[in-house]
Amino acid sequence: MASLIDKVNTLIKANLHYLVDQALKSNSIAVVNQYIREVEDNLEDLEDAVATVGGQVKTIRRKRDEYQAKAEKLDRDIDIFLTEGKESLAVAAQSKLNSTRRTAEAYTEQLATLEREYESLKDARLKLQAKLTAIKQEREELQALLDLAKAKEISTRTIRSLDDLVGSGDEDVARVAESIRGRLDKASAESEMLAESLDRQMDEVLERNEIDSQLLERKRRLGLAEG
Predict the structure, then answer these.
(1) Measured on CA atoms in the order 55, 61, 64, 69, is the torsion positive or negative?
(2) How far apart are CA 129 and CA 39, in angstroms?
(3) Which of 38, 54, 127, 166: CA 20 to 30 A from 133?
(4) Domain of 129?
(5) What's the predicted TM-score (pTM) here?
(6) How far apart are alpha carbons 93 and 71 in whole angstroms?
(7) Considering all CA atoms of the chain, what is the largest pairwise distance in Å, rounded to the nearest integer?
């Protein structure tokens, strides 16, 4: 379980800005897709771990309660035996009570440990789900940016070809080439404005997710939200 939590914490701490930057530098969202696959795989394992530990918590709590109930009954029986003068029965019951209490205490300690682990797993699941949601949003906008970049590359290559035509000496060809280049320049400028808008949106999404996460953590601390 510890290794799973370690892997999950590594994914939670991943810098989304860094992932986006790497994707933009390589002109590919492969690095983001790989991160999403890792998150989804570990989230599935985490869901199974939460269910398993949650079941163990219920089992140990039930056993703890059973032994505590037995201890309470034995405690009452000892008083009855002593009142009735049945010393040997009281001795036997006291010995059994001591053993039962030790078992109940052991289950109590085990339950406390499991409950801490259970809460830790649920908290990790919540954070990893939030991280997955954020990066999926980033991937959509990142894909749009990369599409714009590819279109701009094509425009740049076309403009260079047109530059060659402008200097070819044929006035009609040069005039048409210059007209096309002007249209491409306008399209390129529009693409740049859209790219800047997407950049701002990405930053706002990341900041919003961070704020939501901080507020959720504060609500849990104040008892206003479930773990």
Answers:
(1) negative
(2) 8
(3) 54
(4) 2-221
(5) 0.60
(6) 10
(7) 126
Place of tokens 């163990």: 56
User: In the chain, how many domains are there?
Assistant: 1
Answer whether residue 114 is part of any domain.
Answer: yes
Residue 167 covered by a domain = yes
Tens digit of each residue's pLDDT, the chain (227 residues)? 658 888 888 888 888 878 877 877 777 788 888 889 999 999 999 999 999 999 999 999 999 999 999 999 999 999 999 999 999 999 999 999 999 999 999 999 999 999 999 999 999 999 999 888 888 887 887 777 677 766 665 555 555 555 554 554 455 444 544 555 566 566 666 656 665 666 666 566 666 666 667 677 777 777 776 65
